[in-house]
Amino acid sequence: MSRTRLALVLLIALMARAEATPVMTADGVVEGIAKNSVQEFLGIPYAKPPVGDLRWMPPQPAEKWTGARQAKEFGPACAQIATMAPFAGPANANEDCLYLNVYTPDAKAKLPVLVWVHGGGSVTGEGNHYDGSRLAAKGKLVVVTINYRLTLFGFLAHPTLDSEGHPFGNYGIMDMQAALRWVKRNIASFGGDPNNVTLAGHSAGASAVMANVISPGAVGLFHRAIFTSGNSIPFTALAKTEERGRNFAVAAGCTKGDVAKCLRALPASKVLALSGTRLGNGPYHNGQILDGTVIPIQALEAFTSGKFNRMPIMIGTTKDEGNLAIGVEQYLKHPNTQTTEADFRNYVTRTYGGSAEGGVEQAYPKDTVARVLAHYPVKDAALDSWDAAATDIRPCRAQVVAESLSAHVPVFSYEFADRTAPSFFPKMPGFRPLAYHAGDLPYLFLGYHGGPEGLPTKLTAQQEKLSEHLTAAWANFARTGNPNGAGDAPWPRWKKNGPAVFLQDNEWSRTQTSAQFSATHQCGFWQSVHYWK
Asked: Is residue 456, in this structure, part of any structural domain at all?
């Protein structure tokens, strides 16, 4: 390469990644980086490190600093042991992890703000995996991604801790509210409008957004909500979580004297060792907790009664939600051979047989396993039955939630239906990812691939067109509370027995009535199970 050409390449690289204009926050000045048309401020602390005496305490305001803080690298991910195959991770023991990232196309504007809550079963993941530059640049939004406490660090109840006189149990939810308070105080300095904030999340992150829609602690902190492939799984009852907390303390050797002091003195590695497995399973894990204060009421009860923070809601799932679970199991157990009918039957038994999916005690009738196997018989391929049996309950739950919410607020429902979505799984015999759980995320977050083990993703030209539609819809919703920007087309407001569900595919025009959607996903069968009640 000639010297002239080398100099040109270096100049282009410097222009693509340059210094961002310093920004003054309430805690001090931050200096970020400018990449193409977006300024990025990474690894900004929004609360004190929850370590030592602050473990299992509500988040405290971050310490102020003097001079300019370098915000050019991500902060540490929160402590986690699960990686759930290529879905998330990496495993680590960091408790000092309450950091956020800001992506802004114009620090002098007054733009809508989108705060992103990552998924991962409340046991894994990090906001750092989600590059907000596409949404920021193309959607003209200020995008904020956050880390929050996970596993037992984020969701634990124990009578000793719970009697200390502070909000308890849902420390991860309280972290999100602390991040939202940071946004309210500071986002105007990054070009965002603190009075137009959308809280969006995926999977367990969507369930956390639901919790915040219900929580008194989040009143006035955000103004629109997006539930992406979330669940209306009932929050775990406090009595059950405290029983698990006591069992955890016994396993950790903290049963005598000052139990709270003993628990807070445990090495992070020991807490993680007791928190679960690589798949996210563990005897003490809770998910979000019905503690009575941070989360005062079950989601469906809140949405039906209207006892929630009223705002426009966007809610949806993917067409093949269940294929992520299939891929994870095949990846971990036998990536070089195809899953079998026995694998499918084992999945149905542990999922619908009273086991604790996501740490939540299920309410399935005793005959549910037999009914599911009869309703989804294995014919030519176990994968097809598995995909349907694992998928259908999620969109059916989403429709129950949409109907409940629609009596009180505008609701826009969707199904992501691009079955060509790029996969972060390696090729495995018989496995077809299709429109899998998380398959829509690369269309919104540039290059998202699930975690360190996931294969890099790249959109085709046709997928880029769908990405443009999705980005515009999210930006419109964040700006106006309507994914169309205005009006009722092509994406209609949810209406029972009307064109209620918008199908997100390359046509960007198709809808289904609630009846058609319910028939497609066997919602009559799942309604008979009465799971979400």
From this structure: yes
